[in-house]
Amino acid sequence: MNIQSGMEDDAMLVGQAQIWRYLYGAFDGMALRCCVDLRIPDIISNNNRPTTLSEIASGIDSPSIDVDGLKRLMSFMVYRKVFDEEDGEGSETIYSLNHCSKLLLSSTNVTLAPLVMMFTNPVIGLAINALSQSVKEGGTAFKHTHGEEFFDFTLLNSGFNRIFNEGMACTAKITMDAIISVYKDGFLGSKGSVVDVGGGTGVAISKIAKTYPHLKGINFDLPHVISTAPTYDGVTHVAGDMFKVIPPTETIFMKWVLHNWSNDDCIKILKNCRRAIPKETGKVIIVEIVQHSTEDDPFNYTRITFDLVMFAFFPSGRQRSENEWKNLLGECGFSHYNIIKIPALVSIIEAFP
Ligand SMILES: C[S@@+](CC[C@H](N)C(=O)[O-])C[C@H]1O[C@@H](n2cnc3c(N)ncnc32)[C@H](O)[C@@H]1O
User: Fold this and answer.
1) For residue range 207-262, what is the model confidence (pLDDT) as tens digits?
2) Dihedral sign for Cα atoms in the order 183, 184, 185, 188
3) CA-CA distance, 267 to 327, in Å (whole number)?
4) In CATH, what is the architecture of 174-352?
């Protein structure tokens, strides 16, 4: 055999496998959705021991379960390391939860199940189909598909607004634990109030207000989001538009907001942040992805993909590198900043006037 063409064939085979793997990646998300939808993690958890296929089947609320389909779903999920399996009595396979499926339980405080339901929602899936149109003509894939930009769509579609806000809230709970574990003193030194700009339904600020009772929490977001927000001790909800005015405060917290916007829009938002805080003692705590290429970071793939997600959904939305953050903050008159790494997808960027 010709060595050169043998190597070429091997490389082509790897390339072929690569394309199949990428194409079928969509099934990873949809299979997760299926498990959450059928409450399979809850069924196994409620059983309090590793669970057989027939026990899972009888826990699903349907008179006509396709048990063969369920078995194939479970085999795939075990292969993708979402559940663990072992041989039970009489060699019957039994399934248990692992670190991944524990995050898919519906009624625990720490869960990503609502994020799964949000991100695999057809509203999102349909929009991704228009990615090539965005590259060709500009404009977001979301608007090409749904005729509105993302936050106008959530204003007009209360069902998707709820699904989106729940998806955000569940990740906020997890990220806030990581933030508070590392950045304890960052809030201890603050006085008066903290305004969470674009705070969604208020989960993040409620955690801050609970952990630091000396601070008054203000959750600031668009009216259609605030109208769905639950009541939290120590938190006042304020409806408004961050492009117009941000309530005056000592400290601003802003998580996953600037990545939705272009540099020009970020400058408007950050300048409004600066106007809202005192020059001597104020600070803005930004929580965002800082793009870097650290080896062996389990979130690297997600950080890179997230930039494409922003491109698809928000006009000029993007994930930024440290240099890009530095330039933006400098342009808005922040004199210095610190980046604090936390065990999460995102980092803390504290900025001082
Ligand atoms: C990606 S979500 C992040 C929510 C929350 N900070 C979190 O991390 O879970 C962006 C938030 O910005 C809010 N938002 C968008 N435009 C806004 C505006 N003009 N004024 C205030 N909030 C806005 C959205 O309603 C949404 O809740």
Assistant:
1) 999 999 999 999 999 999 999 999 999 999 999 999 999 999 999 999 999 999 99
2) positive
3) 10
4) 3-Layer(aba) Sandwich (3.40)
Residue with token string 């979301």: 142
Amino acid, res. 130: A
Determine whether the shortest distance from the Cβ of 76 to ligand 1 is under 6 A: no
Ligand 1, atom 12, lies closest to the CA of 198
- Name 5's Cβ contacts closer than 8 Å, sequence gap at least 6: none
> pLDDT at residue 263 above 70?
yes
Look up the CATH architecture of domain 3-104: Orthogonal Bundle (1.10)
User: 220 C-alpha to center of ligand 1: Å?
Assistant: 9
pLDDT band at 1 (very low <50, low <70, confident <90, very high): low
| Residue whose entry in the numeric block shows the structure tokens 């499926």 | 101
The one-character DSSP state at 200 is T
To the nearest 10°, report the CA torsion of 280, 285, 289, 290: 20
Q: For residue 2, what pLDDT band results from cuts at 50, 70 and 90?
A: confident
Nearest CA to 179 out of 344, 351, 299, 352 is that of 344
pTM for this prediction: 0.92
Nearest-CA residue for ligand 1 atom 11 is 198
What are the Cα distances from residue 180, in Å, to 49, 149, 254, 341? Answer: 33, 33, 14, 12
Q: Report domain extents, the chain.
A: 3-104, 174-352
